[in-house]
């Protein structure tokens, strides 16, 4: 049975993790707003916004979950991520589970890129009035419906 106090602590720690990420991300974006930077470098924040977020999430993942088996918020709440089988390694997360968490981070990024690619291509097709065959339209429609189902499932 789940201890309700631990569940509240887990939610609080997740909020702390999100605040930490937003604080670090805003600091990173502010670094790109320095007036002395060349235009090419300052434009990276606009062109590579998703990539900057991914890099920051990967750095936080490496420094917290991968190295310390706990996120920043969990550390402050005195909670640790651990395998269900505590007989093997107490308070230690297996390498397999760390890679699963890592794949979730990368998968979220890939999903956002795929989604933006689909909608961007659809928008460009409407602007240029290029006629497409019905099969490609059906594939895009089915992919959009699939993304909608996944978003609804997350809700």
Automatic annotation (TrEMBL):
Membrane topology: Multi-pass membrane protein
Annotated localization: Peroxisome membrane
Residues spanning the membrane: none
GO BP: any one term: protein import into peroxisome matrix, receptor recycling
Pathway(s): Protein modification; protein ubiquitination
Pfam families assigned to the protein according to its UniProt record, in alphabetical order: Pex2_Pex12
Superkingdom assignment: Eukaryota
InterPro entries attached to this UniProt entry: Pex_N
Domain spans labelled Pex N-terminal: 17-140
Annotated keywords: Membrane, Metal-binding, Peroxisome, Protein transport, Transmembrane, Transmembrane helix, Transport, Zinc, Zinc-finger
CC per GO annotation: peroxisomal membrane
A molecular-function term among this protein's GO annotations: zinc ion binding
UniProt record similarity statement: Belongs to the pex2/pex10/pex12 family.
Protein name per the record: Pex N-terminal domain-containing protein
């Amino acid at each position: 049975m789940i201890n309700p106090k631990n569940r509240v602590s887990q939610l609080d720690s997740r909020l702390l993790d999100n605040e930490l990420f937003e604080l670090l991300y805003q600091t990173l974006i502010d670094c790109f707003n320095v007036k002395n930077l060349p235009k090419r470098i300052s434009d990276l924040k606009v062109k590579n916004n998703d990539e900057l977020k991914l890099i920051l999430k990967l750095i936080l993942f490496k420094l917290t979950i991968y190295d310390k088996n706990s996120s920043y918020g969990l550390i402050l709440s005195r909670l640790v991520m651990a395998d269900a089988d505590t007989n093997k390694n107490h308070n230690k997360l297996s390498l397999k589970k760390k890679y699963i968490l890592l794949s979730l981070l990368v998968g979220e990024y890939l999903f956002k890129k795929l989604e933006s690619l689909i909608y961007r291509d659809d928008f460009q097709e409407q602007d240029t009035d290029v006629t497409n065959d019905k099969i490609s339209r059906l594939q895009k429609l089915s992919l959009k419906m699939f993304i909608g189902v996944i978003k609804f499932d997350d809700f």
